[in-house]
Amino acid sequence: MTKLAKAEEQLMELIWQQEKVFLKDLIEAHPDPKPAATTVATLLKRMQDKGFVGYELLGNSRRYFPLVNKDDYFSKHIGEMVKDYFGDSALQFASFFTSNANLSTDELEELKKIINQEIKKKKK
């Protein structure tokens, strides 16, 4: 799976949120400064070519929808990052993340609960 450029990823996030969306709605939902319609159309075309976005014609308008699941996309790229930067060790990545993400005590407690739930699942 190809990685999206930053501008494409930002646009893809809006598509994931709305699931089916027209060009004008993407521009409206985009944070300021709003991009030009031609810019968004170009990004959408590139994202189609990469296999991330599809569309259906409704009259003269295209309604875009995601072809790639958000969790699948980010899982793949996090996996590549773990492989490239942490010697393919999820443990090293988790250690780095918890040490450097500046998590609050409440967030660390919540993370601890998630880890404990995963441990219970694995023991079953």
UniProtKB/TrEMBL annotation:
Q: Which residues form a coiled coil?
A: none
In terms of InterPro entries, this protein maps to: BlaI_family (IPR005650), WH-like_DNA-bd_sf (IPR036388), WH_DNA-bd_sf (IPR036390)
Alphabetical keyword list: DNA-binding, Transcription, Transcription regulation
Tell me the protein family, please.
Belongs to the BlaI transcriptional regulatory family.
Name by which UniProt lists this protein: BlaI/MecI/CopY family transcriptional regulator
